[in-house]
Amino acid sequence: CPFCPGNEHLNPRAIAVVPADGPWRVRVTPDKRPLLRVEGELGRRGAGMFDVMNAIGAHELVSDTPHHAQSWADFSRAQMAELLATGSTSTPLAPFSIGRFNRKKES
């Protein structure tokens, strides 16, 4: 799995790592194939009664734990606070939304 400890080389360079030294507990990396990019103009315009703009933004992946079987329900309050604090400091566009992937190991 590219998100497992030891496979960090399979991902782009990390934007944020917690803790900064030692084994990581949270990692934030840019997506290799981003759906959004920070480059470009917003291009806000009216479309009838709606406002429309271009899709501009950062597409980042958050590895919220190095353990496959651990879910948010298993997190301690301190672990969840650490994860959410990472989001508020990793990018000037914070706060960001956190998406989860089902990272079950294949048999």
Briefly characterize the structure.
The protein has 107 residues and is an alpha+beta fold. The chain has one helix at residues 77-89; strands spanning 16-18, 26-30, 45-47, 50-52, 60-63.
Structural class computed from helices and strand pairing: alpha+beta
Number of helices: 1
Number of strands: 5
Q: What average pLDDT do the residues reach? A: 81
What is the ordering of alpha helices and beta strands? EEEEEH
Explain what this protein looks like in three dimensions.
With about 110 residues, the chain is an alpha+beta fold. It contains one helix and five strands, in the order E-E-E-E-E-H. The chain has a three-stranded antiparallel β-sheet with strand order 1-2-5, with helices on one face. A two-stranded antiparallel ribbon has the order 3-4.
What is the topological layout?
Blueprint: E1 16-18, E2 26-30, E3 45-47, E4 50-52, E5 60-63, H1 77-89
Antiparallel strand pairs: 1-2, 2-5, 3-4
Key phrases:
single chain; 107 residues; two-stranded antiparallel ribbon; disordered C terminus; alpha+beta
